[in-house]
């Protein structure tokens, strides 16, 4: 097991293996999203309160879920990198940030579009769920700006890892915000003590979308880590051989 | 046509799905571009080193 993990963390091995793994994320991810989109838009029954507007859930919840998953991946990898000094894990943290920022942006925008017809407003300042999600967007920006400001990769890794870990306190705040404080935002739908508050025709497409987007996130993350590894290993022999022996792309 | 109208919420529903598609496309393009960028930068640097020698 340790031998396998050690080999996996070796950059050239990761670089080769990840290229083979990516299609195994893209194909099921695409299938699940196509199914979830069609079933969610046309086959799930309209909500008894929200009508067809509830269908925004099929993109909003996966986006919000990924925004938090990406942050968790970023903070955990940064922590592992800081403690065990595994270079690959810093590469993963750095790769997760821009993806997390995009999905946070998407969660905020789709939430805003959903809020307009349901709450009568695009945005509510001071709402705990909305504010904590917006803070996460700024945490991602701060993390990326900090990395960009430090030329030395090792120093950038360390400094940005500390920021990622400190900001991680925001994750449980986002999750529990709708329980702790009064919020315009509705409570949990899927993970509830009394089971999901949705019939199967509504729930299955949502689960497919969440799983499908997670696969696509995995593929995007692996793709970004590959570039990150290539850059970090630019002076190594294996990268030289790879680059010089290939045509335009590798 | 009625299904596309989304009971009057069409503009909200379709713009949400459209934006999601756009964000995913941007993410995919960025990943590919970044990889090509890193690859070609390393190549340029290696070529420059070769001519120096």
What keywords describe this structure?
heterodimer, A: 250 residues, mainly alpha, 9 helices, 77% helix, B: 53 residues, 2 helices, 0% strand
What general outline of chain B do the C-alpha atoms trace? rod-shaped
Spans of chain A of 5+ residues with little confidence (pLDDT < 50)? none
Separation of the first and last Cα atoms of chain A: 29 Å
How many structural domains are formed by the residues of chain A? 1
Biggest interface and residues each: A-B, 42 and 33 residues
Question: Mean pLDDT of chain B, as a whole number?
Answer: 91
Largest sheet of chain A: none
Q: Which class of secondary structure composition applies to the elements of chain B?
A: mainly alpha
Count of separate structural domains of chain B:
1
Query: Based on DSSP secondary structure assignment, what is the total number of beta strands of chain A?
Result: 0
Rg of chain A, Å, rounded? 20 Å
N- to C-terminal distance of chain B: 69 Å
Structure description:
- The complex is a heterodimer of chains A (250) and B (53).
- Chain A is an all-alpha fold and 250 residues long.
- Chain A is 77% helix and 0% strand.
- Chain B has 53 residues and is mainly alpha-helical.
- Helix content of chain B is 89%, strand content 0%.
- The model of chain B has no long low-confidence stretch (mean pLDDT 91).
- The chains are: A mainly alpha (250), B mainly alpha (53).
- The interface between A and B is large, with 42 and 33 residues.
Topology readout:
The complex is a heterodimer of chains A (250) and B (53).
Chain A: H1 2-9, H2 11-43, H3 57-84, H4 87-119, H5 128-149, H6 153-167, H7 170-180, H8 200-232, H9 237-245
Helix pairs in contact in A: 2-8, 3-4, 3-6, 3-8, 4-5, 4-8, 5-6, 5-7
Chain B: H1 2-5, H2 10-52
């Amino acid at each position: 097991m340790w031998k396998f993990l050690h080999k996996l963390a070796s950059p050239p091995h990761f670089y080769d293996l990840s290229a083979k793994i990516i299609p195994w994320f893209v194909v099921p991810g695409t299938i699940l999203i196509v199914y979830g989109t069609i079933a969610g838009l046309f086959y799930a029954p309209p909500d008894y309160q929200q009508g067809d507007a509830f269908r925004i859930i099929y993109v909003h919840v996966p986006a919000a879920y990924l925004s938090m998953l990406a942050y968790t991946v970023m903070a955990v990898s940064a922590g592992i990198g800081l403690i065990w000094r595994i270079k690959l894990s810093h590469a993963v943290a750095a790769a997760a940030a821009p993806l997390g920022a995009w999905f946070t942006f998407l969660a905020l925008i789709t939430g805003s579009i959903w809020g307009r017809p349901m709450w009568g407003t695009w945005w509510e300042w001071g709402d705990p769920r909305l504010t904590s999600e917006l803070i996460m967007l700024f945490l991602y920006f701060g993390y990326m700006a900090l990395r960009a400001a430090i030329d030395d990769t090792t120093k950038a890794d360390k400094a940005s890892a500390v920021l990622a870990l400190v900001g991680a306190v925001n994750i449980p705040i986002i999750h529990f915000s709708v329980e702790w404080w009064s919020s315009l935002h509705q409570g949990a739908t899927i993970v509830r003590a009394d089971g999901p508050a949705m019939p199967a025709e509504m729930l299955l497409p949502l689960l497919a979308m969440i799983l499908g987007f997670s696969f696509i996130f995995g593929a995007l993350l692996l793709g970004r880590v590959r570039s990150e590894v290539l850059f970090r290993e630019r002076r190594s022999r294996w990268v030289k051989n790879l680059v010089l022996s290939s045509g335009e792309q590798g | 046509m009625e299904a596309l109208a989304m009971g009057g919420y069409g503009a909200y529903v379709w713009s949400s799905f459209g934006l999601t598609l756009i964000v995913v496309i941007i993410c995919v393009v960025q990943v590919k571009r970044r990889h090509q960028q890193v690859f070609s930068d390393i190549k340029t640097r290696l070529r420059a080193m070769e001519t120096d020698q």
